[in-house]
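User: Could you write out the 3D structure of this protein bound to 2-phosphoglycolic acid? I've included everything you need below.
Assistant: Certainly. Input first, then the structure.
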Amino acid sequence: MRKKIIAGNWKMNKTPSEALALIETLKPLVAGADADVVFCVPAIDIVPAVQAVAGTDIAIGAENMYFEDKGAFTGEISAPMLVDAGVKYVIIGHSERREYFAETDATVNKKVLKAFEYGLTPIICCGETLTQREQGVTIDFVRQQIKIAFQGVTAEQAKTAVIAYEPIWAIGTGVVATTEQAEEVCAAVRACIGELYGADTAEAIRIQYGGSVSGASAPELFAQPDIDGGLVGGASLKEDFGKIVHYDR
Ligand code: PGA
C-alpha cells in the first residue's frame, strides 16, 4: 500500500516573514495527517521554513535546483546546498519552468539524476497542453516526458521517486481534470514505469495529480487507484490545504 504524498507548491509567493506566518497557520491544520506532507517553498524561504517545521512531520521541498554541484552559475542553487539546508524533496520540471525558463526534458533528466545522487526525492512533473489533449496525444506526450526524465535512473531510485501529473490546462485555472481524466493518465504513467522497470517499481512509485486541487475535489481524486496524492498550488497557500491533507476524514 503506497503512502499518499501531498505537496504544496508555493511558487513565487510569500516573503520569508510571510512564509513563517503561513507555516504557523498551517501547522495545526495539517497535523496528524495519514499522508506525507511537504511544503515546497521559494529558495529564500527554505532556511526559515526548515526551522519552523522542526519537530513536526512536515518536510520542506525546493521548487527547482540546478544540475551541477557548484561553480560559475550565477543565481542557481545546487543539490548539496538544498541538502545542507535540510530539504528533502525538489520539484523538477514544473510546466512553468518549462514554459518560462526554457527547461527541457534533457535538463529535467540531468536534474533528476543529480537529485538522486544527493539523496533528494525528486517530484518530477509531466503533463500536456490543452491542444495536445484535443489532438489526442496526451498519453504519448506524457510517456515521452517520463521516458526521458528517467534515463539513467535505476529501479531502486525510481521506486522512491514522485511523479506529478499536471495537465497544463488545469494549473491555476480552477478547471480540475475530471477524476476519469486524471486516473487515466496516472495509470498510463504507472504502466510506462512498469515497462521501464518492472511491476515492483511501478507498484512502489508515487504518482500525484496536480491542477486546481481543492479540499472539495481532493477526496474523489485521491481515492483513485493510481493517484497517490497531489501537487497543490493555489490552495496550498490557504487554510483549505488542511482539508486537502485530511481528504480521508
Ligand atoms: P494549482 O497549481 O493547484 O494552483 O492549479 C498546481 C501546480 O502548478 O503545481
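The two ends are 18 Å apart (CA to CA).
User: Perfect, thank you.
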